[in-house]
Automatic annotation (TrEMBL):
Swiss-Prot/TrEMBL keywords: Phosphoprotein, Two-component regulatory system
Organism of this sequence: Kuenenia stuttgartiensis
An individual GO BP term: phosphorelay signal transduction system
PANTHER family cross-referenced by the UniProt entry: HYBRID SIGNAL TRANSDUCTION HISTIDINE KINASE J
Protein known as: Polar-differentiation response regulator DivK
Residues covered by the Response regulatory domain: 5-121
Length: 123
C-alpha cells in the first residue's frame, strides 16, 4: 500500500469519484481540486507526489496550470499526468510539450491508471 499524495484536478464529479475510488483502493491519499484556481491554492499548502490534470477546466485551463506549476522552482519536479478527453491528432504532443510527464485519455482505464501513477512515482 502507498501513502503517497495524489492531487486530482478535475471539474467533473463522476470522473473525480472514479479516480478517487481507484486511488484510495490502492492506498493513495487523494487531494481534489475542481478548478485551476483551487489547485493553485492547495499547492500553496501542500506538495503532492504526483498530479492528475484535466485539460478542460473552468477558469485557468489545464495547459496554463501545467505551465505555471512547471515554472515554480519548488514544484517543477512534481510529475503531472494529463487525463483528458482531448483525442484529436496532435493534442497528445501539444499536452506533453507543456511539461506533462504522461497523457491518458478518457474514459479512464481503471487498471492502467494506478500502473501509470506508480511508474512516475518511482522515477
Amino acid at each position: 500500500m502507498s501513502n503517497k499524495n495524489v492531487m486530482v484536478v478535475e471539474d467533473n464529479e463522476k470522473n473525480r469519484k472514479l479516480i478517487r475510488v481507484v486511488l484510495k483502493a490502492k492506498g493513495y491519499n487523494v487531494i481534489e481540486a475542481t478548478t485551476g484556481e483551487e489547485a493553485l491554492s492547495l499547492l500553496k499548502e501542500q506538495i503532492p507526489d504526483i498530479i492528475l490534470m484535466d485539460i478542460q477546466l473552468p477558469g485557468i485551463d489545464g495547459l496554463t496550470l501545467i505551465r505555471q506549476i512547471k515554472a515554480d522552482a519548488g514544484k517543477k519536479d512534481i510529475p503531472i499526468i494529463a487525463v483528458t478527453a482531448h483525442a484529436m491528432k496532435g493534442d497528445q504532443q501539444k499536452i506533453l510539450d507543456t511539461g506533462c510527464d504522461a497523457y491518458m485519455s478518457k474514459p479512464i482505464d481503471t487498471r492502467e491508471l494506478p500502473l501509470t501513477i506508480e511508474k512516475y512515482l518511482k522515477k
